[in-house]
Amino acid sequence: MATFLYKLGRLSFRRRHFVALIWVALLTLAGAGAASAPAAGNSSFSIPGTEAQKAFDLLEQRFPGTSADGATARVVFKAPSGEKMTDPGNKATVQDTVKELSDGSEVVRVTDPYQAKAVSKDGTIAYAQVSYKVSGMELDDAAKDALKDSAQDARKDGLTVEIGGDALQAVPHTGSSEIIGIAVAAVVLVITFGSLVAAGLPLLTALIGVGIGVSAITGLASALDLGSTTSTLAMMIGLAVGIDYALFIVSRYRAELAEGREREEAAGRAVGTAGSAVVFAGLTVVIALVGLSVVNIPMLTKMGIAAAGTVAIAVLIALTMIPALLGFAGRKVKPMGEKGKLPGRAKKQDEPGEQGRPAKPNLGTRWASFVVRRPLAVLLLGVIGLGAAAIPATSLELGLPDDGSQPTSTTQRRAYDLLSEGFGPGFNGPLMVVVDAKNSDDPKAVFTQTGDEIKGLKDVVTVTPAQPNKAGDTATITVIPGSQPSSVTTENLVHGIRDAGAGIKADTDANVLVTGSTAMNIDVSEKLNDALVPYLVLVVGLAFLLLIVVFRSILVPLKAALGFLLSVMAALGAVVAVFQWGWLSGLMGVEQTGPVMSMMPIFMVGVVFGLAMDYEVFLVTRMREAYVHGEKPAQAVVTGFRHGARVVTAAAVIMMAVFAGFIGSSESMVKMIGFGLAIAVFFDAFIVRMAIVPAVLALLDRKAWWLPKWLDRALPNVDVEGEGLRATSGDDDGDRALIRV
What does each C-alpha distance from 286 to 224, 309, 601, 614, 676 come to in angstroms? Predict the structure, then answer.
């Protein structure tokens, strides 16, 4: 592989005009496609195989034309102090509002609170429900404005009016903090390289790669039913890895120049050596992201594949466009150690002294030397620290966001609170029971029996009469729990209804299904929990095999996987502490604490595993190369840090800055993932890879690089270290073939 990539790097350097033209053309084509593509709506949320989804699909068949997936709005009215909603003046205001709302072209129906008995027992609160033909993201601005104007008109008459539901759903924005993250990355690059030109190359190529990836996603969003979160996450991950991959190749190029090679040869060697590590690091990320499809949640699958595509583009750009741009830059990109005009420029360190020893060890060398002298203490301290950070994860509560998780400043949250006040906490999470009595002899009797059995269950406040379809073979029953939607009591009620339904099916051959947002939330959490172990086995197993090929060792990949588990558990603990417990919530812009997003654990496992393996590959390949060339195991660890610690540190800081930039998003899921990934990179790069990994390697000594002879013969030689480049470049000096990733 190293030889092929070496030739690719030299070709890209020589044909730089052609390579640059191809990538600019792809960016232009993708941008034009995105600009001309129809606007994407809100991505449909389906969970194949769950009871809640089966019930929803059945409603589509048996109750056609009801727009079950359309947007809804609950306009909640509260009477002034001392008055009732049944007072003539207040009643007239509500009825005028209902009439005004009914005139919308996208409105299917509006319920009158007085006819639908939607007035609280004390008479102070009432609500009207508006159903639309299209989803909240597809709703015209005119329809949203009409909804807001109707509420404002009612407020003028003295009523408190708030609007809940998804009709006012807004397109999420990331805010200015995303730009701050990129700016931090730029500063780190300038400090690392001491040159504006060298620092600008990773940023430029990363932005081009993300531009192509996100534009392609935008262009295909309508056709493939991709939501706005898909492109945001692809941009987040693509930008982070794009900068990092380019950073490693530019660093290797400058190191080759410092050894006296010509620029074309240096570009070829940079791509052949550091590029090999980029390919395998990118493969681990792609495997982890594409592996999300095993969960069988379409939205999660699309997010993973879209992000994986952006990562693949980042790898290709790093391998081709970086050497092309290095050709354009010429002498503006200086060899490593050559003095520049900017502060923080790279300085020559570890130059051989009179006895052949480094005269001025850099920080990476000093740290690695300390770790190999005190490996057990460093290992215990790192494991205990991450274990302590992971403790909050034992209190992890999963859920999907609803209006109750919105900030109290929003009208959706205030409407949620008013409904809880007037009708009880469970009113915001009603359960819809669908009774399929098509195979029953007496459907009406089945409907009645089902309602009666549900009334006898605990935590049931209200059970509405069955509402049959035109054929009379299917009916819906609305159940109002006594507890809030995210409570364990409500979850137990859902399981209780389903258990009762099993008995009804045995007696009458009728199917009783529970759906609604609360039931869907419960089913999603259970499905994700069930899929977590198979997903871990698949992704970690494939990556483990890949790392065996790269490192030609059994224990090194095993250590890498165990270290990842430590970092991801610690990161989940931090997420729970901030978003569920409320620690530092003000600093993170978390206005409302609550359950952690249901898909957060499995998504973090996938993404963090891929990113964690990046640093493992970049750092440990240099250690293995030194060991293969005759250094003792402990000294090989120090050598790996001497050449790789500075660049890996810069890469981790950049990735953290990019992820942290998304904490400013208005979308709670993006905010949570941005924080989770940023803290996970910190734990993995600086504690696991920089402390635990060298400590374990020092303790294992030569055993770390053990591989059975039969397996060594069976594995393909991918030559990540670039041994084949000696013959290709005609070098006689073995020292110049050392890999400095």
Answer: 20, 8, 18, 11, 19
Distance CA 126, CA 143 (A): 22
CA distance 558 to 567: 15
Residue type, 30: A
| Interior/surface letters 360-388, b for 16+ CB within 10 angstroms, e for the rest | ebbebbebbbebbeebeebbeebbebbee
| Residue reference for tokens 């706005």 | 228
Residue 497 and residue 506: Cα distance in Å, rounded?
Answer: 14
Handedness of CA 657, 235, 686, 205 (dihedral sign): negative
* Secondary structure class of 642 (helix, strand, coil): helix
Per-residue exposure over 674-690, b if at least 16 CB sit within 10 Å of its own CB, e if not: bbbbbbbbbbbbbbbbb
- CB contact set of 476 (below 8 Å; sequence gap of 6+): 59, 63, 432, 433, 434, 435, 466, 467
What are the angstrom distances between the C-alpha of 604 and each of 12, 230, 504, 537, 574?
35, 15, 41, 15, 12
pLDDT of residue 103: 83
375 vs 366: CA distance, rounded Å: 14
Task: Tell me what pLDDT residue 731 has.
Answer: 47
- Residue 274 near residue 592, CB atoms below 8 Å: no
- Average pLDDT, integer, range 177-193: 78
Please write the tens of the pLDDT for every residue from 508-534.
889 999 988 788 888 888 888 888 888
Per-state percent for the chain, helix, strand, coil, to nearest 5 = 65, 10, 25
Q: What is the DSSP letter of 262?
A: -
For residue 468 the two structure tokens come to 């049959």
Query: 398-399 and 596-597: which strand pairing?
Result: parallel
The DSSP string of 672-685 is HHHHHHHHHHHIII
Question: What contacts 514, CB < 8 A, 6 or more positions away?
Answer: 51, 52, 55, 431, 432, 433, 434, 494, 497, 498, 501
Between CA 71 and CA 76, with CA 73 as vertex, the angle to 5 degrees is 170
Are the beta carbons of 215 and 30 closer than 8 angstroms? Answer: yes
Pairing status of strand 474-481 against strand 467-468:
antiparallel
Quote the pLDDT of residue 67: 55
Q: Give the three-state DSSP class for 72.
A: strand
pTM over 0.90: no
The one-letter amino acid code at 667 reads E
Amino acid symbol at 636: A
Does residue 339 have a pLDDT over 60? Answer: no
Tell which wins on pLDDT, 229 or 158: 158
CA separation for the pair 479, 267 (Å, rounded): 67
Plot region of 82 (φ>0 → left; ψ -120 to 50 → alpha; else → beta) = left
Average per-residue pLDDT for the chain: 82
The pLDDT of residue 351: 45
Calpha distance 524→433 (Å, rounded): 18
DSSP state of 345: -
Q: What is the pLDDT of residue 362?
A: 77
Q: Model confidence over 250-259: pLDDT tens digits?
A: 988 888 888 8
What does 99-117 look like in DSSP terms, one character per residue? HHHTT-TTEEEE--TTTTT
Report the C-alpha gap between 528 and 535 in whole angstroms. Answer: 10
Kindly provide the residue ranges of all beta strands, DSSP E only, lying in 598-665, ordered along the sequence.
none
717 by Cβ neighbours in 10 Å (0-12 / 13-18 / 19+) ranks as exposed
What local confidence, expressed as pLDDT, does residue 345 receive?
A: 45
Q: Residue 725: is its pLDDT beyond 80? A: no
Cα–Cα separations (whole angstroms), residue 161 to 77, 82, 127, 158, 290 = 5, 17, 9, 9, 46
- Picking from 496, 471, 416, 488, the residue whose alpha carbon sits closest to that of residue 479 is 496
